Amino acid sequence: xxxxxxxxxxxxxxxxxxxxxxxxxxxxxxxxxxxxxxxxxxxxxxxxxxxxxxxxxxxxxxxxxxxxxxxxxxxxxxxxxxxxxxxxxxxxxxxxxxxxxxxxxxxxxxxxxxxxxxxxxxxxxxxxxxxxxxxxxxxxxxxxxxxxxxxxxxxxxxxxxxxxxxxxxxxxxxxxxxxxxxxxxxxxxxxxxxxxxxxx
Length: 200
What we know:
This protein is mostly beta strands.
């Protein structure tokens, strides 16, 4: 077996991750996983799906995967802790992948949270990843950049589970204040200015 490289990333510079179990949040409908093999494929699972609720044991393959690509990359997706430990009430998602073909595989492009109000949010926190021979340095961050045109490349090795663990920060870049919020803020600043001016 080729050597396995385990790398842990710090998230100190990022916002705190989602503060509740992803599975039980009534605002979340499903999660979509984007993977690039020639073209970008999309794989969507409902929050209470068997796929997300369970980690698959053993080596991933044709008969043991949540989804696969045309290049025979096999994926397992599940709720987890920030450390990648399976947890049905976890606040993170872990994406495991196996690939032993040519080139660098496990090309996760992004993970999207689909909400009940027809909006969505992309994962923007990477807490850990596991790569192997052929890993493209720094490419793991493409899995949480909100751009499905870029993708990670974790490598290729027989019998190895490459992996990502991702989260959704409370201040995700898709969260834009409503116009009324701006108006209230402006009114508050104006009132404070007038009070200060009148006290002079």
